[in-house]
Every structure is written in structure tokens, then in C-alpha cells.
């Protein structure tokens, strides 16, 4: 080949490669060789992926409106099978032209008797599903029954929970019914996280134990423990990986949002605070869950970052690492509710309000719309000393909030919770728990009503 012709061919090949049209790649010192195609990313590429059930592969029989006998995982080739009386149903062309496996209100389940899929302290469990009827349901159950690893949706909390042994790892804000969602439960070290459609919705640390890994257990694929908690809804995918990274969460969202045309919410709300935000009672829905329920999921979704015992100063110190990464460029709201733990730790009203102002201003400066809340009456061994300072703190918030927040949620003037205004009054057991600090279901519902109204006051450009 003449030099000029050779160079012309090289430039043509390089231009085709750059434009994405080349079928060959010319080496500078050799002959053309076939290009190696890069496979599209899928959950099969997750680090330490151990199982992936997908509705478009491995279902038998894959016939529309037919009861499923088995569903074979595409990673290890294990078939989860059903009994003749408890079979989910296969339906075609349900989710963006893809099929689903539908579970009803009776005991529909698939099980596989294999070694535990989840081991150690780093893992992800995920599924794409549409919840049709909110109810207590186990999507995954790893025995023995006395110490299960489960994740499921619970009616009583209007939320999804992730549980190890008898300890609930995360009380996550719920998902919308009758819409498909990508739901992830993850654990990294002692930190458990829950994601819905790529958004962090709950995070806790230092709870529970590692997943069992030594004994052979029954994997209940979308199961009901002892026939009591059947799943109700459509499932397209479930996967388990013994690894976790935020990068993988992003990859999973990109994969499933493209494949199934899943959508993000329009407004994302970050709830931050102490045990009143977290909710101490596993049978009582947190006020964040009730707030989003009132506002309407999926138009509003969010994260519950409440930590038991957290002070205002601790919230200020950790916000850059914990809260700021959750800011979205569209509509993001940050709600701060604390003060009482700081005051109970002998911090003055002025210093507590200073921490709150710094906390809120930093989030507002980032781009969040910020809602700051007043504190409720309090009683414990130090109630006598706390109450006057709490009232001073609330008055400072009322006077100064416009300097660092967009909206004031003055929950301390909620007539149900504080019928006498700022006067010490937390003895009404219809709203307050026995400790006269935390709330019962009606109390959290009253808080959620106040917060929902404040969220609706937020104005956008």
C-alpha cells in the first residue's frame, strides 16, 4: 500500500471509530482486527452477584395468565418452585412491554431450598415491583424462622422495613401503590440503607447483626412466613448481591429506569431530626411516612434521616456529609426538627438556635427549600428545667426563621398536640406515649398534618 493511501485509510478508520460507525479497528502497526463489542451493563455485572430472577427469563410456563410452576434464577440457575395450590400468575406485556409475575391476596409463593444467598455485612437486596394492596408482606425470607432476614412492606407503618433477627434495621418511607418501583435494601458494615427509585429514603447505623451465612436455610422468594404475610402485587425482578456501593445503586437505577421507563418523583423531601422523626415504635408510622402519604407518593418522596438521641449540634456537624449529597437539582426540601435533645443536654436556647440557624442556612444556601419546626412539650426527670428553655428556643425560632429558612412549621401551636399553646401539656394519651415525650399514631398524624401544610407553602421559581 502506498504511504498516502495507508494514511488515508487510517484517518478514515479513526473517524469511523470516533463516530461510532466502525465495524473494524485498524492497528497502527498491524492488520485490521474485529472490534470487541462492549456488553451493556445489567445486574449480572454487580460485584458478587449471587442471584437474579427476571420475569423475561426463566419463568415456566411463560404463558400469559398461567400459574407459575417455577422461576429459574439467571446467575446460579436455581429454580424457585411453587406448590400446586400456591402459585403466582405470569402475565405478558404489563411493564413497558415486559412480563410480570403477579402475587395475589392468598398464599402465593416460590421457594428454593439452597444455601443462604446473603452473607456477612455487605450486601444488596433489590426488586422491581408494583404494590397493589398495602399489607404486611415478606419479599425475601432467609431462615431459620426464629432469626429471619426479611424485607417487606408493612401496613402499620405505611413504610417498607428491613429486618435482621428481631431488630428492624430501617423504617423506610413507603412506596406508591399501583406504580412500579425499584426498591433496594443495602448493608455496608453496620450501616443499613433503603432506596426507592435511586433515592435514599432511610439510613441507620449500628443496629442488628450480620446476615446468617453458615447454615443451610430456605430462601423464600417473595414469600409469606408461615403463610401469614402474602405479597400482593406484580414483580418483574429480584436480585441479591454480597456487595454494596453507591455507584452500583446509580447503575441499577439507570438500568431499570431505561428498561422499564421508571420515573423519578417531582419533589424530594429530606426529614432530619431525633427520635420524634425516626419513630421509636415499630408499629407506629413515622411522621415523615405519614406526611408523604398525605402529600401523595410519588409526587413527593423522601428520606427519613432521623436518629435517636441526635442533637441539633450533631445535625449541624454531619449535614454536609449526610444531607447535602441528597440534594437534587430539581425540587428538594429539607425539614429540620430538633432542639429538645440539645436543651436537655444543658445547651442554652440561644446556642441551640444558633446551631439550628447554621444547619438550616447551609442547606438553604445549597439550594434546598428549608422548613424549620418548633419543639413540642417535654416531660422527664429534667422537665422542670427544660420547659422554660424550650419555650425560649421556640420564640427565637419564630422571630428569626426567615433569616435561614423558607417556611416555619410551628407544630408547638398545633391545637391537638398543644391545646394550651406553649404551656406544658403532654399528658394527653390520645396523642402522647406513656413517656410523655414521644407520640402515638394520632400524635404523629397531627404532626404530619402540620408539616404537610408547611410543605404546600413552599414556593418554587
Describe the SSE topology.
Elements: H1 3-19, E1 24-25, E2 33-34, E3 49-54, E4 59-60, E5 66-67, E6 70-72, E7 79-81, E8 89-95, E9 98-103, E10 110-114, E11 122-131, E12 137-142, E13 149-154, E14 159-164, E15 167-173, E16 180-188, E17 191-196, E18 199-205, E19 217-221, E20 233-241, H2 246-260, E21 267-273, H3 275-278, H4 287-295, E22 300-304, H5 312-322, E23 331-337, H6 340-344, H7 349-366, E24 369-373, H8 383-400, E25 407-409, H9 441-457
Parallel strand pairs: 21-22, 21-23, 23-24, 24-25
Antiparallel strand pairs: 1-2, 3-20, 4-6, 5-8, 6-7, 8-9, 9-20, 10-19, 11-16, 11-20, 12-13, 12-19, 13-14, 14-15, 16-17, 17-18
CATH architecture of the largest domain: Sandwich
CATH topology type of the largest domain: Jelly Rolls
Domain count, please report it: 2
Integer average pLDDT: 76
- Number-wise, the strands total 25
As a whole number of angstroms, the C-alpha radius of gyration is 26 Å
Helix content: 10-25%
The residue ranges in which pLDDT falls below 50 over 5 or more consecutive positions are 1-37, 144-158, 212-220
The rounded distance between the terminal residues' Cα atoms is 64 Å
Which word captures the global form? Answer: elongated
Query: Class of the largest domain, according to the CATH hierarchy?
Result: Mainly Beta
Walkthrough of the structure:
The chain is α+β, with helices and mostly antiparallel strands and 461 residues long. The chain is built from 9 helices and 25 strands. The protein folds into 2 domains: 211 residues, Jelly Rolls (Sandwich); 197 residues, Rossmann fold. Strands 3, 5, 8, 9, 11, 16, 17, 18 and 20 form a 9-stranded antiparallel β-sheet that branches. The N and C termini lie far apart (64 Å). The relative contact order is 0.10.
Amino acid at each position: 500500500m502506498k504511504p498516502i493511501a495507508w494514511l488515508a485509510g487510517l484517518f478514515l478508520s479513526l473517524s469511523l471509530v470516533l463516530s461510532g460507525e466502525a465495524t473494524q479497528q485498524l492497528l497502527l502497526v498491524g492488520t485490521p482486527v474485529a472490534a470487541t463489542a462492549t456488553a451493556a451493563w445489567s445486574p449480572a455485572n454487580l460485584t458478587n452477584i449471587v442471584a437474579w430472577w427476571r420475569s423475561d427469563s426463566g419463568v415456566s410456563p411463560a404463558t400469559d395468565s398461567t400459574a407459575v410452576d417455577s422461576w429459574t434464577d439467571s446467575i446460579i440457575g436455581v429454580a424457585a418452585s411453587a406448590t400446586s395450590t400456591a402459585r403466582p400468575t405470569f402475565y405478558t406485556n404489563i411493564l413497558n412491554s415486559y412480563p410480570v409475575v403477579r402475587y395475589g391476596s392468598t398464599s402465593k409463593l416460590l421457594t428454593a431450598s439452597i444455601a443462604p444467598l446473603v452473607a456477612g455485612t455487605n450486601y444488596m437486596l433489590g426488586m422491581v415491583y408494583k404494590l397493589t394492596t398495602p399489607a404486611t408482606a415478606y419479599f425475601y425470607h432467609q431462615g431459620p424462622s426464629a432469626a429471619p432476614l426479611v424485607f417487606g412492606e408493612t401496613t402499620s407503618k405505611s413504610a417498607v422495613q428491613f429486618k435482621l433477627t428481631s431488630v428492624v434495621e430501617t423504617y423506610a418511607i413507603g412506596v406508591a401503590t399501583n406504580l412500579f418501583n425499584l426498591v433496594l435494601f443495602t448493608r455496608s458494615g453496620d450501616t443499613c440503607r433503603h432506596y426507592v427509585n435511586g433515592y435514599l429514603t432511610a439510613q441507620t447505623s449500628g443496629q442488628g447483626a450480620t446476615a446468617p451465612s453458615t447454615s443451610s436455610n430456605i430462601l423464600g422468594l417473595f414469600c409469606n412466613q408461615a403463610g401469614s404475610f402474602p405479597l400482593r402485587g406484580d414483580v418483574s425482578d429480584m436480585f441479591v448481591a454480597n456487595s454494596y456501593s453507591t455507584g452500583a445503586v446509580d447503575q441499577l437505577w439507570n438500568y431499570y429506569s431505561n428498561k422499564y421507563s421508571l420515573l423519578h418523583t417531582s419533589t424530594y423531601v429530606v426529614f432530619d431530626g431525633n427520635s420524634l422523626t425516626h419513630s421509636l415504635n415499630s408499629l407506629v408510622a413515622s411522621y415523615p411516612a405519614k406526611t408523604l402519604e398525605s402529600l401523595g407518593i410519588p409526587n413527593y418522596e423522601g428520606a427519613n434521616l432521623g436518629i435517636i438521641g441526635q442533637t441539633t449540634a450533631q445535625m449541624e456537624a454531619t449535614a454536609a456529609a449526610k444531607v447535602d449529597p441528597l440534594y437534587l437539582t430539581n425540587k428538594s426540601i429539607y425539614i429540620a426538627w430538633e432542639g429538645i435533645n440539645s436543651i436537655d443536654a444543658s445547651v442554652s436556647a440561644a446556642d441551640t438556635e444558633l446551631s439550628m440557624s447554621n444547619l438550616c442556612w447551609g442547606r438553604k444556601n445549597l439550594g434546598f427549600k428549608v422548613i424549620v419546626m418548633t419543639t413540642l412539650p417535654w416531660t422527664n426527670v429534667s422537665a422542670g428545667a427544660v420547659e422554660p428553655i424550650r419555650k425560649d428556643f421556640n420564640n427565637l425560632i419564630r422571630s428569626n426563621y426567615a433569616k435561614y429558612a423558607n417556611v416555619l412549621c410551628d407544630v408547638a401551636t398545633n391545637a391537638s398536640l398543644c391545646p394550651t399553646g406553649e404551656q406544658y401539656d403532654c399528658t394527653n394519651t390520645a396523642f402522647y406515649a406513656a413517656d410523655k415525650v414521644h407520640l402515638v399514631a394520632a400524635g404523629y398524624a397531627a404532626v404530619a398534618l402540620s408539616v404537610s401544610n408547611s410543605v404546600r407553602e413552599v414556593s418554587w421559581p
